[in-house]
């Protein structure tokens, strides 16, 4: 399954229907080689993105890192959830040079844990949005 997922993501990235809607509110953008630290306002299960920084922030509730993966020649997206509840979110991979955007399924992150997602090689930017806590 892990070998098939990057191939499916690459196929989705370059399919004709890959263009998505315009930028969403509460969106975290990350590029290869970056680490982002995000803080949120919590209202029940809804989250509102307050700010994102690339400087290390121990108070951040979410830490997102996108690193090259030499084994797959793609990228690994690491999402660390520091909330006390599971975190659900959505994502969109982008090729800026080809003006292509494709939504990708992402696995929710268990409270206090991290998740690793494999991304195809032509991803130049990743948008994470739709953050919410699960009951």
- Strand percentage lies at over 45%
Strand order in the largest sheet: 3-2-4-5-8
- Using only C-alpha atoms, the radius of gyration works out to 14 Å
Helicity level, as a percent range? under 10%
Order of helices and strands: HEEEEEEEEE
Low-confidence stretches: 11-22
The rough form would be described as globular
Distance between the termini: 28 Å
* Arithmetic mean of pLDDT: 85
Total count of helical runs of at least 4 residues? 1
Structural class: mainly beta
The major pleated sheet works out as:
5 strands, antiparallel
The figure for the number of domains is 1
Count of extended strands: 9
Structure description:
By secondary structure, the protein is mainly beta. It has one domain (4-18, 25-133). The chain is 7% helix and 48% strand. It contains 1 helix and 9 strands, in the order αβββββββββ. The protein has one helix at residues 4-13; strands at residues 28-30, 35-43, 46-53, 62-69, 74-81, 87-95, 100-104, 114-119, 125-133. The strands form 2 sheets. The protein has a 5-stranded antiparallel sheet with strand order 3-2-4-5-8. Strands 1-9-6-7 form a 4-stranded antiparallel sheet. The radius of gyration is 14 Å and the shape is globular. The protein starts with a helix and ends with a strand. Mean pLDDT is 85; it is low at 11-22.
């Amino acid at each position: 399954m892990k070998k098939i997922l990057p191939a499916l993501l690459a196929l989705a990235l370059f399919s004709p229907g890959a263009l998505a809607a315009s930028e969403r509110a509460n969106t975290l953008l990350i590029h290869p080689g970056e680490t982002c630290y995000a803080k949120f306002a919590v209202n029940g299960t809804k989250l509102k993105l307050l700010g994102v920084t690339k400087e290390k922030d121990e108070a951040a509730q979410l830490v997102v890192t996108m690193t090259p993966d030499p084994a797959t020649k793609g990228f690994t997206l690491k999402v660390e959830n520091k909330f006390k509840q599971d975190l659900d979110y959505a994502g969109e991979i982008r090729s800026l040079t080809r003006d292509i955007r494709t939504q990708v399924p992402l696995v929710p992150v268990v409270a206090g844990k991290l998740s690793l997602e494999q991304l195809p090689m032509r991803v130049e930017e990743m948008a994470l949005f739709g953050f919410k806590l699960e009951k």
